[in-house]
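Morning F.,

Quick status update on the modeling queue. The single chain you submitted on Monday has been processed. Sequence for confirmation:
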Amino acid sequence: MNVSPLKIFDESILPAVLVIFAKILGSIFANYYFNLNWNLGEGLIFYSFPRIVYLDSNSLQIANSVSTLAVLFVLVFGFGFVLFRAHNFHDSHIHPKVSAGLHKRGLEELICDSYEIYHQAAIWLSLTWLVFLLAALQFSVGVLNGGIFAFSGVITLSLNALLFLDVKKEINVERELARQDVN
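Structure tokens below.
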């Protein structure tokens, strides 16, 4: 099936909003919990939109680290949910008993096809790599804690590996179906 740009755009709205919201909430939490030195300044992109200006580099690093950690948690839960559905409710390799149980409980909407799963996974995968690359950049200029950068690397590689396992399972199912068609 072809990748639909409209489908990817549609699937990307909620994850992008959740990531942005996590970054903002993480910054607000860090500012008040750690009593950081900051002020509101004029925005660079949207001139009427205020931005947070930190008065010292330590405050910037703490706020950036906490907000990046919040984003990583959103990525783990969001991408994790997609991966959970991919491993357990993928229509190509769901166990018949699980499928019957979901239908009996009226939860058949949890079962999804490859088209839906891989569109969602592509969005979350892209966001995960974007956050990792931004974390690498922020770490390289000294505005992100090294532990948070390392954690972002572990999260990125782990989520990639879990997606790879489902793709591998899907390929094996397709090979088995192709073999059955030949026989």
